[in-house]
Design a protein that fits this description.
2 copies of one chain form a homodimer. By secondary structure, chain A is of the alpha/beta class. Chain A is built from 13 helices and 12 strands. In chain A, strand 3 (133-136), helix 8 and strand 4 form a beta-alpha-beta unit. The first copy, chain A, binds a DNA duplex through helix 3 and helix 5.
Chain lengths: 343, 343
DNA sequence: GTGCGCCGTCAAATCGTTTTGCCTCAGGAA
DNA sequence: TTCCTGAGGCAAAACGATTTGACGGCGCAC
């Protein structure tokens, strides 16, 4: 019928077929069609057959936007990260996507570049879009205070930090223990003058804390000149390492707060003709892909990005399904040391 | 006012305020509120003031889902890629996001792992969600045939391949020219026995074609034994290179269809104690971050991921705004050779 | 004075679902 | 027979916006 009239003129854009059309084609009411689709109420076998046939014939696909409006669920969750280009966040996002995909949830990714205003903007945007949940993996502490005020309804899980919000769960990689392990490992190997390349001020403080505690436990003094800073980048690690290597009492081991800086440090060692780990040992943090691309392969602490994303997804799901309602949970993920060639 | 009454009882979930509430609070009709928001019709200065005040007081935020339903625009575009974890696609996605962000469009990312059924599923899903556009960067040729049937309404742009669909634009990195440049470069440097590690059968054929044409132009014979295959991975490159290096007439240069395989090839060279590029030259393709992490830094062909994503976004925008309507365009992006240490 | 056009506003229809309340009918129990 | 119960179906009211058509004033030109 419809195809016939279409072939005549073909003026109308073949707009999507609605539930009403299916209903009239099957000779039932829209309600009934909806019920065979959702199974919320019983439908006679015969009617169901007719309806199903009509659906198939017309190629009906439900309009999800309309459904979302009515049910107040978007089957979409937002993940806000500094930069999807950063492998750590890419892997995290993938872990999240895999975890929620089975439940039919899509993932809306937002790049903030770590800017507070963008964080806030995307938070608002996500709420306005009616997402079913938010995974927040951007920013460490400062920005988060304001975020809590935004909404009290939709579940949020925060990665790498706690957020003061009634429905907010947290998953935090245990940086501190991991860093302590790295420090302890270097000490146990007999290195004497152990240095650290930290992150920028106010960032990655737990990694510094873990390292310090290990040094204390191992009775290693760490003079201030051996605690330098980088900006998380390879180049930043390079310059920091350069400074370290020109010290009169040159360090024989350095722990870097992330892999990229460790790779920069490695560059310096190569440039200076220093043998790693004999002349100087290097340990990183994160265990990115690149860690096994450099030579020798980087000894580092594994930051479980995929797992973090996955458990964030699980946390969200448990709240969305109503399986859990209650105060904020926090699950901490271990960061194991992985020994390779540089220490 | 509101905070006061809230602190009293706190029984009602603070459900979002609607346009109707704003209207009644301001003593006007919902229509008027909508008009001050959208500016589609003029509104008296006084009324506008009242409305704006009401909006601010009540903290009104428009429900985007409802808007989407009515306007049939979701302000969301889907990008379907094999795997966001792959840096190439991550960068591409970022380029896209940056391009469309200014227009208020969000990006919904879908990981297909290159599986046809998942490609189809996400395609459907994206349409059902009413996305305003789709960027398809997964799969090379085979899967795409079926996709065209899905929808004739929403604009699609295909990256790295053409798709037969009325509204489908294409952006294709010029693999072939890039590969030809790589081949020509090796020949010009005087390498005699040039080999290639290709992708799997039916994949990356333009790269192979470019290489072949360069060899022909340079009058280099390439016996079949020097054309081996890998599976795009580092390990695949490793085994392929191993095979190459045990040939009786050992190649003195090898062009790899992507960087990861080139890195695997480099592993073999190091393992065998071969000096690069003196004993054997290596050229990759893609210019991923890792290319400058290996030693020596990899000479490679740059695959402009960010630009590809960006122009895909522009193409989409031009159609969505109605600025362009018409048959499918294709823009090709140059893939320049970048000379570094391995050739 | 009349007609015309414009400005500002509103009521009502619309988008495509889901969900609630009600109705009918058949069958079994009392 | 009467009452009750459950199954199967429908009409209509949401959901929260946008958009269309109409209407009452007002100013201006004729």
């Amino acid at each position: 019928m419809l195809p016939m009239s279409r072939s005549e003129v073909e003026p109308s854009p073949p707009s999507r077929v609605t539930i009403a059309q299916v209903a009239s084609h099957a000779g039932v009411s829209p309600t009934t069609v909806s019920h065979v689709l959702s199974g919320k109420r019983a439908v006679g076998a015969a009617t169901r057959g007719t309806v199903l046939a009509a659906i198939r014939e017309l190629g009906y696909r439900p309009n999800i936007v309309a459904r979302n409006l009515r049910t107040r669920r978007s089957h979409m969750i937002a993940v806000v990260v500094p930069d999807i280009t950063n492998p750590f966040y890419a892997v995290l996002t993938r872990g999240l996507a895999d975890a929620v995909d089975a439940a039919g949830l899509g993932t809306y990714v937002c790049n903030t570049d770590g800017q507070h205003d963008r964080e806030l903007k995307f938070f608002q945007d996500a709420m306005d879009r009616g997402v079913d949940g938010i995974v927040f993996a951007s920013g460490e502490t400062a920005s988060q205070v304001r975020l809590a005020e935004v909404d009290q309804q939709t579940p949020i899980v925060c990665i790498g930090a706690q957020l003061d919000h009634p429905l907010c769960d947290a998953v935090i990689p245990d940086d501190e223990t991991g860093s302590r392990a790295a420090g302890a490992f270097l000490a146990a190997r007999g290195y004497k003058r152990i240095a650290m390349i930290q992150g920028p001020p106010h960032y990655g403080m737990t990694r510094t804390a873990g390292f310090r505690s290990a040094m204390q436990a191992a009775k290693r003094k760490v003079p201030a000149e051996r605690m330098v800073r980088g900006d998380w980048t390879r180049k930043g690690g390079y310059t920091a390492m350069k400074a370290l290597m020109t010290l009169t009492s040159r360090p024989d081991a350095v722990f870097c707060a992330n892999d990229l800086m460790a790779i920069g440090a490695l560059d310096v060692a190569h440039e200076l003709g220093l043998s790693v780990p004999d002349d100087v040992a290097i340990v990183g943090f994160d265990d990115v892909d690149a860690a096994t691309i450099v030579t020798p392969h980087l000894t580092t602490v594994r930051n479980p990005a995929y797992e973090a994303g996955g458990t964030a997804g699980d946390l969200l799901l448990s709240r969305m399904s109503g399986r859990y309602t209650g105060t904020g949970r926090t699950v901490v993920l271990p960061c194991p040391l992985v020994e390779r060639g540089t220490a």
